[in-house]
């Protein structure tokens, strides 16, 4: 799919429930080990697929907008009450 990128990472180790993944460029990613495929072990190479999720992006944008609106409303109410 043209809208996704695949990154290969190697599973370096798992420490205290945290998987240490290493990219080909040497960057280390920390990830809860529960997200790994069940049979993963040290030295395994894993595919990480990155793709946009427009539906979830929209949901998040709505939640943020709603929260901002509630905060603005609360601020307005407080300012109006101070003026009384």
Overall description:
35% of the residues lie in helices and 35% in strands. It is α+β, with helices and mostly antiparallel strands. It has a four-stranded antiparallel β-sheet, with no helix packed on it. The protein starts with a strand and ends with a helix. The mean pLDDT is 94.
Report a brief summary of the structure.
With 84 residues, the protein is an alpha+beta fold.
The geometry reads as elongated
Rounded average pLDDT: 94
The count of domains is 2
Q: Regions with pLDDT < 50 over 5+ consecutive residues? A: none
Structural class: alpha+beta
- In the sheet with the most strands, the strands line up as 3-2-1-4
Largest sheet: 4 strands, antiparallel
Secondary-structure element order, as H and E?
Answer: EEEEH
Radius of gyration: 22 Å
Hey, roughly how much beta strand do the residues contain? 25-35%
Cα distance spanning the termini: 60 Å
The amount of helix comes to 25-40%
Q: Please provide the count of β strands.
A: 4
Oligomer: single chain
> How many DSSP helices?
1
């Amino acid at each position: 799919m043209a809208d996704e990128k695949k990154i290969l990472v190697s599973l370096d180790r798992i420490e205290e429930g945290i998987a240490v993944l290493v990219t080909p460029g040497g960057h280390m990613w920390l990830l809860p080990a529960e997200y790994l495929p069940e049979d993963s072990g040290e030295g395994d190479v894993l595919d990480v697929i990155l793709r946009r999720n427009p539906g979830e992006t929209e949901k998040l944008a709505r939640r943020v907008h709603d929260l901002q609106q509630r905060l603005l409303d609360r601020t307005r109410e407080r300012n109006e009450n101070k003026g009384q």
